Structure formats: C-alpha cells, structure tokens
C-alpha cells in the first residue's frame, strides 16, 4: 500500500525506522549500515524528511542524531500509516477478536527497533491463551500482512519493546 504512495524504498524504510516507535533514533552512517544503503541516498532522504518537518535533528558528540518530530501536525497520521503498512493494526485486531483474555500485546525484535526485516515478533500477555490456536492465527495474519510473524506467549525477553495494546 505505502509503496504506491511513496516510490522511494529508502524513504519508506526510514519512515518505518522512526515512526513505528518514537524512541528510535539514528545517525547517517548508522542508518546507512542498518538499511544497507549508501550514505548519499540516506542523506538525501533524511534532508527531504527534515525539510518537510517530519524529522528533527540534534548534534550529540560530533554526530547528528535524527528522530521523528512528534510535534508535527501529521505525526499521528504518519505513524498510523506506517503501522498499517507493517500490519500491526491487523495483528492487534485479529488477536483481540479471537483470543482469550489479553492483557498486553508487545512488539519486540527488529520492528520494535524500526527495522523492516520481514519477521514481526509479538509477545502476548494474558490468561488461558491457546498456543495451537495462536499458531494457526499466525498463519492467517502472515497471509494477510505478507510478513512472517512469531508469537511468544507470556514470555518477556530483555530487549527493546513497543507496547501496541494494553487492557485498561
């Protein structure tokens, strides 16, 4: 969906990096290595997004650090578009409709770090969760969002995380 609107794959990957989780940040060379792109293509896209006001930058220890501009009027809309592009909204919707008592859904791994690697790792915290049913649901979700998904049930790993749903 997003590929038809934004033709630059590098720009899409940068948007995913910064807008999937506002805690994510990066600098030019680090982003070039992480995204396996040239520094020139990364610089061009960072400058375009910075000029549009979607990113902000800060100089720290001789490095210019970029991050999402949460004060931009379109921030929440872009974040929602990025999450829909990845399929996070579909994952949460299907989980809440079809699984027992969910207390929390947490995104971990590459996507919590803003890397569009193709493997989405999700921790499900809840009661009486049926592992076999969840594995079958993963196959349905994978077909819908065109990405691999791995569910962990009531297992927390010490890694960067992004809470995508929490029961109130």
Q: Overview of this structure, please?
A:
There is one protein chain. The protein is of the alpha+beta class. It folds into two domains: 76 residues, Winged helix-like DNA-binding domain superfamily/Winged helix DNA-binding domain (Arc Repressor Mutant, subunit A), CATH 1.10.10; 80 residues. The chain contains seven helices and seven strands; from the N terminus they run ααβααββααββαββ. The strands form two sheets. The protein has a four-stranded mixed beta sheet with strand order 6-5-4-7, with helices on one face. A hairpin with a 2-residue loop joins β2 and β3. α3 crosses α4 and α6 packs antiparallel against α7. It starts with a helix and ends with a strand. The model has no long low-confidence stretch (mean pLDDT 86).
pLDDT averaged over residues = 86
Strand content: 25-35%
Helix content: 40-55%
First CA to last CA: what distance?
32 Å
What is the number of beta strands? Answer: 7
InterPro entries: WH-like_DNA-bd_sf, WH_DNA-bd_sf
Protein name: ArsR family transcriptional regulator
Compile the SSE list and pairings:
Elements: H1 2-5, H2 9-19, E1 25-27, H3 28-35, H4 39-51, E2 55-60, E3 63-68, H5 75-86, H6 88-98, E4 101-108, E5 119-127, H7 131-145, E6 148-153, E7 161-166
Parallel strand pairs: 5-6
Antiparallel strand pairs: 1-3, 2-3, 4-5, 4-7
Protein name: ArsR family transcriptional regulator
Organism: Flavobacterium myungsuense
